[in-house]
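Morning. Coffee machine broken again, so started the prediction first thing and wrote up yesterday's gels while waiting. Chain of 193 residues, entered below exactly as on the submission form.
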Amino acid sequence: MKYDFAALRFCEDENIRDRVYWYLSDLPLKENEEVLAPVGVHDRLQKARVERFTSAEEEDAPYDVRLIKRVAAKMGERKLSIGGAEFAEFGGVRFDDRHYTRFSRVIYSEEKADVGELALHGFRAVFDAPMSEDDAIYREIVRGHGIALFGGEGRKIMNLLFSLLKRSKEAADFLYSIGLCERDLVALLVRLG
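Came back before lunch.
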């Protein structure tokens, strides 16, 4: 079986920027293109530059395919057209000096979209504006991928979650106030970052 491999350099991380790491890629990449890829035991996404891109059979791979990680996405928020609306995907959003969210299946749009078509694309939880500040939205985000947010409240919710990633006490206090326990907050942090 033939695989695509990308040699990545993590220029923003002083601990590993002097080395090149091989990743599998499901995306067509070019040299010098910027991507997001998981790093370390926690698989936090970081920005990297593609130094080399090649295809090879498993036996000729530059690194053992059983041990190698995959490129998560090209750099920047991905845009999706679903159900008659344009959505921004919240994976790959920077939340501190070198880390990015891996929240790849939460999408947001100012426009209305067809709920049936969203379901066909794997978005099972859909929240429409105006949204109440209840725990249903956050509980869905804790449970897994496939959440679509509409309207201004969607952006507010994502900003709250990003502030939680930055260890904001106010964000944590709000989530506690709507009934999320510490275990839920830990699950949110793991899913976000």
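The CA atoms of residues 41 and 125 lie 30 Å apart. Going to sketch it on the whiteboard this afternoon.
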